[in-house]
Design a protein that fits this description.
The chain is α+β, with helices and mostly antiparallel strands. Among the domains are: 113 residues, no CATH class; 97 residues, Sandwich (Immunoglobulin-like). It has 17 helices and 12 strands. The strands form 3 sheets. Strands 5, 7, 8, 10, 11 and 12 form a 6-stranded mixed sheet that branches. The protein has a 3-stranded antiparallel sheet with strand order 1-2-3. Helix 1 packs across helix 3. The longest helix has 31 residues. About 11% of the residues have low confidence.
Amino acid sequence: MEHLTQKQVEAYRQSQLPVAELLPVTDHLGECETCRRHIQGALNSDAAFFAVRAEVFGDDAEILSADRESAHPTAEQMAEYVDGQRSGDTLQIIEDHLNSCEHCVIAVDDLRAFRNQIAPSLDREYHPASVPAPTEGWWRRRVASVPALFQAFPTPAFGAALALLLLAVIGWLILRRQWESSTKQEIVVAPAPSLQPSLPVQPAPVLSQPEPASVVAQLKDGEGVLTLDQQGKLSGADDLPPAYQSMIKKALSDRRLEKSPQLSGLTRPGSSLMSSDKETGQFSVIEPAGNVLMTNQPTFRWSTMEGATGYVVEIYDGDFNLVVASPQLTTHSWSLPQSLPRGRVYSWQVKATKDGQEITSPRPPAPQAKFRILDQGKANELAKARRAYPSSHLALGLLYAEAGLLKEAEQELRALQKANPDAELARSLLRQVQALRRRSE
């Protein structure tokens, strides 16, 4: 691979490389000192610090740089992490990086899935099948040697006559051997009569049991254990509806959570030209913002403005029509006393009064604080599932994530990870929903 382009360097620095390019670029950085220095220069101008750290930590210096936001583990480091060959500070730094980098989470999950897929075949040893060499009869060897007689005798007529004579002799010998063989087969030797009749002994039938399929994923969920084998058979979920079983099977095989379409349009990507109030530490809204809510009577919270004498909360619909406004408040939260219509997207803002002036948050160019109220049908389905399957943390976590309720999904997957402290799959699902929550805030 040639040296990285400036576009690849910028994409790597901003953690925006596609998954297909991430591993090749990371491998190239592990081999190319020039590109690695270029990346390090773009990430941090304090080159002397990292040079000293490289002398102290040696081979671990590169992974210890993972505290920088855009430094990804190399393919070799990801493979060692999947195989459990990392420990101590380097293991903690990789796990911290996976908590904030969806690309690396996907890459680690793909490596683990690939390892689980080929691991059973590595325990077998294959050899080419041995084919016994065909044995030629004596008469075939004799017939094959007949053409040599024409070379031994210069006279064609004499050689042809001798060849015909030999063929006749060979044919007679073949017929004789066949006759002797058939005669031996016709001789029947009568068995000696036994004094007592004996019943034929039948051998006991041997029942061949199929080999159990290899396990792809296994998690303790509630009072049972969910198991998915290589043939796609799911065990331990017989009490769940078929739709929920298919959802669990897909999560166990793919090992990833998809972003819910319910979250679309609630947030917009940040820009260097846009700065939110949260980033500057000034007066700002806190929640709800960029998420889906189960309740249609939410509670609104915002930060304190020093010197403010009062606050007013205003809620707008999708066309920015005022739906409801609060009275003058002196607290930093307000619970809506009435229900909002379900299945709609709303935005809200808070106005602080200070020195006779009104200060609004969020204010442009910061994005609006939007949220969605879950529709009634989905809310009823989730309430029914919670009553019917309260101990199935995986099923409930996947249902909440599918509906865009990331806070509730994180609570269920955290309980699942607690029940499976050594299961990497449970940790991976929890990290993915946490990453979705951070991006929606």
